């Protein structure tokens, strides 16, 4: 009678190892396939535009304030340092398009300098963010 009891208890146990393996593999899959967005870190008042195109692979944003400040990856950056910072971001997360979020009152010369730095970093596609208007 005691032997039957021991066998019943052994048969009722569920091995959790395969389920934990599957959960761990799924976790690794989601971590690897997740894309991280490098936002500028500030809000700007974008100009209105009638036509807009939304890009699915929006990864790196550079913001230009009306005061001439340039922000990227949630840090203020000098215009001369944009190329170096952008090259570092591109090695971490390659992309074919960079987004500029320029304020309505941003100086044209600063935006052009930012665009030149992006071109020097090796990215040919630049998109200017705008609000629906």
In short:
Belongs to the ExbD/TolR family. With 133 residues, the protein is α/β, with parallel strands linked by helices.
Task: Describe what this molecule looks like in 3D.
Belongs to the ExbD/TolR family. It comes from Thalassotalea agarivorans (Thalassomonas agarivorans). The strands form two sheets. The protein has a five-stranded mixed β-sheet with strand order 4-3-2-5-6, covered by helices on one side. A two-stranded parallel ribbon has the order 1-7. The chain has two domains: about 1-35; about 50-130, 2-Layer Sandwich (Nucleotidyltransferase, domain 5). The protein is about 40% helix and about 20% strand. It has about 130 residues and is of the alpha/beta class. It is elongated. It contains four helices and seven strands, in the order ααββββαβαββ.
List the helices and strands and how they pair.
Elements: H1 2-12, H2 17-33, E1 48-49, E2 61-64, E3 70-72, E4 75-77, H3 82-92, E5 97-102, H4 108-120, E6 125-128, E7 131-132
Parallel strand pairs: 1-7, 2-5, 5-6
Antiparallel strand pairs: 2-3, 3-4
Keywords: Cell membrane, Membrane, Protein transport, Transmembrane, Transmembrane helix, Transport
Membrane topology: Single-pass membrane protein; Single-pass type II membrane protein
Main location: membrane
Question: What's the shape?
Answer: elongated
Tell me the domain tally. Answer: 2
- Summarize the helix and strand pattern as letters: HHEEEEHEHEE
Structural class: alpha/beta
The biggest sheet, with number of strands, parallel, antiparallel or mixed sense and barrel status, is: 5 strands, mixed
Helix percent band: 25-40%
Low-pLDDT ranges: none
User: What oligomeric state best describes the polypeptide chains here?
Assistant: single chain
Q: Name the average pLDDT.
A: 79
CATH architecture of the largest domain: 2-Layer Sandwich
Q: Output the CATH topology of the largest domain.
A: Nucleotidyltransferase, domain 5
Q: How far is the first residue's CA from the last residue's CA?
A: 82 Å
Biggest sheet strand line-up? 4-3-2-5-6
How big is the Rg?
25 Å
* CATH class group of the largest domain: Alpha Beta
Strand content of the residues, in percent?
Answer: 15-25%
Q: Could you give the count of β-strands?
A: 7
Total count of helical runs of at least 4 residues: 4
């Amino acid at each position: 009678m005691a032997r039957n009891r021991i066998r019943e208890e052994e048969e009722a146990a569920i091995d959790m190892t395969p389920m934990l393996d599957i959960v761990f593999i799924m976790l690794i899959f989601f971590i690897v396939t997740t894309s991280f967005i490098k936002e500028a870190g500030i809000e700007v008042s974008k100009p209105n535009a009638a036509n807009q195109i939304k890009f699915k692979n929006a990864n790196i944003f550079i913001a230009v304030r009306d005061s001439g400040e340039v922000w990227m990856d949630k840090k203020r950056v000098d215009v001369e340092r944009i190329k170096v910072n952008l090259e570092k971001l591109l090695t971490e997360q390659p992309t074919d398009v960079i987004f500029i979020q320029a304020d309505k009152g941003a100086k044209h010369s600063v935006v052009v300098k930012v665009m030149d730095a992006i071109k020097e970093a090796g990215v040919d596609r630049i998109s200017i963010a705008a609000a629906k208007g």
